User: Fold these one by one.
Assistant:
Number 1:
Amino acid sequence: MIEEAIDEKELAFLSQLEEHENEWVAFIEEDGAETVVGSGKDAVEAIKDAEKRGFPDAILMKVPPFDRGFIPANFASVPDGH
C-alpha cells in the first residue's frame, strides 16, 4: 500500500514535469509529494514565478530535453593526465 502511494506521487510529479521540457521549474515538497509551483526559461524566471504564487522557498531544477539521455559524470575520478 505504501509503495503504491509513493509510486502514484512520483508519477504525478513526473507528469507535471512533462509540461516543462527544457525549462527550469520551482517545486515544493509537502506530505511526501513534490508539486511544481513555478517555471520559466531560466532559474530567475522560475523562482520569481514561484514567489509570485506564494512559494519563496521553492527548490529549483532544470528539466532536461526528453530526446536525450543524461549520464552524470564524476570528474573527481577522471584522470587529468598529469
Number 2:
Amino acid sequence: MERPYTIAMIAHALAGGREQRLATDMADDVSKPVQPEALIAVLKKCQPVLLSNQVSVMAAE
C-alpha cells in the first residue's frame, strides 16, 4: 500500500519546523496566511503522484 501524499497546513512556521514535519512523513507544507502561488505549487507537486495512483487502480480493475 502506498503512503498518502500528506500536505500540512500550519498556522505558525517556526525555524526548523519544516524539517520536523517532513521527518514525520508529511510530503510538504503550506503556512498561513496561505499564498495562492505557494498552494498551487504544492498541489502541482502532488499531481503526478495522484495521477500515477489513479492509473494503478484503473490497471488493477
